[in-house]
Amino acid sequence: MGKAETIKTIQARRVTMKSVAIKSNLRNQQRVDVNIDISVETQDGTQLTCKATNMSRSGLMLSCSQELIKKLVPTQQPPAAGHWIPIKTSFSVPVIANQPVSIVANGNIVHMRRVARDEFQLGINFAEFEGNGFDYVDRHVAKLLADAKTIT
What we know:
By secondary structure, this protein is α+β, with helices and mostly antiparallel strands. It has two helices and six strands; from the N terminus they run βββαβββα. The longest helix is centred in the C-terminal third of the chain and has 19 residues, at 133-151.
């Protein structure tokens, strides 16, 4: 091992660092784990089915294969902020005494990441619901959150 060398800092000058832009928290709603089939329709009318792994009042996390990703996100690159990919989703949730209701919601793919060789996650933000869709999602998420609190 060598000897530590003394470094003179007489001629060193102060360096101003650029501040890091703070990224806002995109998760402004509580999420609940789910395992439901979601029908996704692209702008060109292609319909695909993925699994939702979690849900909140403001969106879904989908789990898709690479084959489906190629159809949903042709570039296979995460969407840039503000350049989201519009889609239409439809799914069912049990609301009244385990009676499922159908929900149709327009949304945007705002996040994508690869989690395994043939598994990707897509973050969907809801933009608009048809009919009482938001109320049904709100009730379903509230019920799952309440059930989770009674279990722990």
